[in-house]
Specification:
The chain is an alpha/beta fold. The chain folds into two domains: about 5-170, Phosphoglycerate kinase, N-terminal domain (Rossmann fold); about 180-385, Phosphoglycerate kinase, N-terminal domain (Rossmann fold, 3-Layer(aba) Sandwich). Helix content is about 35%, strand content about 15%. It has 14 helices and 17 strands. α8 (about 225-230) packs across α9 (about 245-255). The longest helix has 16 residues, at about 35-50. The radius of gyration is 23 Å and the shape is elongated. The N and C termini lie close together (about 10 Å). Bound molecules: adenosine monophosphate. The site of adenosine monophosphate (AMP) has 16 residues, from β14. Adenosine monophosphate (AMP) binds next to β14. It is an enzyme of class 2 (transferase). It holds the Pfam family PGK. Keywords: ATP-binding, Cytoplasm, Glycolysis, Kinase, Nucleotide-binding, Transferase. It comes from Pedobacter westerhofensis.
C-alpha cells in the first residue's frame, strides 16, 4: 500500500483530501471532532518532513453554491488549536486567491480550502474542476475514508493528475487494514451484529456477510420487518413491508449456508415514540396494536451477549434500539459492553462501523475499549460488500 511513509515531503506542497465533515451545533461548535483528530498524524508527518499542507474537504450537503452554514471557516479555529499553528484559509477552493495562497505557502504552513461541495462539479467528478484543484499541490494524499466510496473530483478523479505522486494518508491505511482483517482474515467464530432503522440499507452487506460469518445477530428497527415476515404482530413498530419477502429469503439463505441467525426473542415496547412513553417488555411478535418496539429486551440481551462473548471477530453496525433516548438505550449499551468484554476477555478483534454505532459507543464512553472504531459509514459498508472503493482504486491504479 502506497502510504505517506513512502514519500519525503521536504519542500513539497501536499494536497490532502480529508474528511472534515464534522457535526456542528447551531452556534457552529463542533460536537464531535473525531474525524479531524484522525487526520492529524498525516498532516503532522508532512509538516515534520519540511513540507506544507493544503487541506480540502466537504462539509454537509450544500446545494451546489456557497452557504454560510456549511463554510469550513467555522472549524478553522479548532483546527489551528489542534495543530498548534495558525491555519490559513482560502474562501474559495479554486480561483486566483486559492492559487496565490497555495503558492505562497512556506514549509510548515497549512492552508484550508473552502467547502469543495460549493461547486456541483465536485460530486459530479468533473475533470476540469479536479484539474484546477490539482494545480494547487505537488503531491496528492487521500486521507478521507468517509468519502472513499464516492467517485468525486477530489476523492478520485484528481488522482489522474498525479500519476506517481499520490499516497494514502495514515487514517486511510489504518481503516483499510482493519476492514481487511474482517473481510478476509477473520478469526472464527466471526459474529456480525446488524442493527439500525432499515433492512433496505443493509441488504447487500447482510448477503455478503452470509459467506463469511458464523453468527449474524439482527436487532434494532430492522428486526421488526423480520418478525412481521415470520407472522408476528409488531404494532406500530418500524416496518418495510416491501422487504418482508426478502427477509424470509435471507433467513433461508443463512440456513443453507449454515449461518446461525439470531433475532430478538423479546422487545421493549412503548405507547409512543418518546423517552417518557409508557414502556413494557413483551416477547417478539406479540406487540399490541398502537405500541411500538424501541429496544431489544433482556432475554435477547442474554442470548446475544452469550454469542458475542464467545466470538473471536466482531463487526458491529447499527444500534439495537433508539439509543438516543435514555429509556431505550439499554439494549445497545448491553451489546456495546458485551463487545468490550469479548475484546478484553476473549482477545476478540472488534470493529465498530457506521455513524450510529460509532455515536453509540462514544455515548457510552467505550470508544477506547474496542479494537477499532471506523470513521466511515457508507464507505465501510461498501467495502464490506466487496466493492472496490473509487478513492482507494484511484491511489492503487
Ligand atoms: P441506521 O442509520 O440505519 O444505522 O439507523 C440508526 C437509527 O435507527 C438510530 O437513530 C436509531 O434511533 C434508529 N432505531 C434503532 N432501532 C429503532 C427502533 N426500534 N425504532 C425506531 N428507530 C430505531
Amino acid at each position: 500500500m502506497k502510504t505517506v511513509d513512502q514519500c519525503d515531503f521536504k519542500d513539497k506542497k501536499a494536497l490532502i483530501r480529508v474528511d472534515f465533515n464534522v457535526p456542528l451545533d447551531k452556534d457552529f461548535n463542533i460536537t464531535d471532532d473525531k474525524r479531524m483528530r484522525a487526520a492529524l498524524p498525516t498532516i503532522t508527518k508532512i509538516l515534520n518532513d519540511g513540507g506544507s499542507v493544503i487541506l480540502m474537504s466537504h462539509l454537509g450537503r450544500p446545494k451546489g453554491g456557497p452557504e454560510d452554514k456549511y463554510s469550513l471557516k467555522h472549524i478553522l479555529g479548532d483546527l489551528s488549536r489542534m495543530l498548534d499553528l495558525e491555519v490559513k484559509f482560502a474562501d474559495d477552493c479554486i480561483g486566483a486567491d486559492a492559487a496565490e495562497k497555495a503558492k505562497d505557502l512556506e514549509p510548515g504552513q497549512v492552508l484550508l480550502l473552502e467547502n469543495l461541495r460549493f461547486y456541483k462539479e465536485e460530486e459530479k467528478g468533473d475533470k476540469e474542476f479536479a484539474g484546477k484543484l490539482a494545480k494547487l499541490g505537488d503531491v496528492y494524499v487521500n486521507d478521507a475514508f468517509g468519502t472513499a466510496h464516492r467517485a468525486h473530483a477530489s476523492t478520485s478523479i484528481i488522482a489522474e493528475f498525479f500519476p506517481t505522486e499520490k499516497y494514502f494518508g495514515y487514517l486511510m491505511a489504518e481503516e483499510l487494514k482493519n476492514a481487511e482483517k474482517i473481510n478476509n482474515n477473520a478469526d472464527k467464530p466471526f459474529t456480525a451484529i446488524m442493527g439500525g432503522a432499515k433492512v433496505s440499507d443493509k441488504i447487500l452487506l447482510i448477503e455478503s456477510l452470509l459467506d463469511k460469518v458464523d453468527n449474524l445477530i439482527i436487532g434494532g428497527g430492522m428486526a421488526y420487518t423480520f418478525a412481521k415476515a415470520q407472522g408476528g404482530e409488531i404494532g406500530t413498530s418500524l416496518l418495510e413491508a416491501d422487504r418482508m419477502e426478502l427477509c424470509l429469503e435471507l433467513l433461508e439463505k443463512a440456513k443453507a449456508k449454515g449461518v446461525n441467525i439470531l433475532l430478538p426473542v423479546d422487545t421493549v415496547i412503548a405507547d409512543k415514540f418518546d423517552n417518557e412513553a409508557q414502556k413494557k417488555n413483551v416477547d417478539s411478535g406479540q406487540i399490541p396494536a398502537d405500541w411500538m418496539g424501541l429496544d431489544i429486551g433482556p432475554k435477547s440481551v442474554d442470548l446475544f451477549t452469550d454469542v458475542i462473548k464467545n466470538s473471536k471477530t466482531l463487526l458491529w453496525n447499527g444500534p439495537m434500539g433508539v439509543f438516543e433516548m435514555a429509556n431505550f438505550e439499554q439494549g445497545t449499551r448491553a451489546i456495546a459492553e458485551a463487545v468490550v468484554a469479548a475484546t478484553k476477555e476473549n482477545d476478540a478483534f472488534s470493529l465498530i462501523g457506521g455513524g450510529d454505532s460509532a455515536a453509540a459507543i462514544a455515548k457510552f464512553g467505550l470508544e477506547d475499549e474496542v479494537s477499532y472504531v471506523s470513521t466511515g459509514g457508507g464507505a465501510l459498508l461498501e467495502y464490506m460488500e466487496g466493492k472496490e472503493l473509487p478513492g482507494v482504486k484511484a491511489i492503487n491504479d
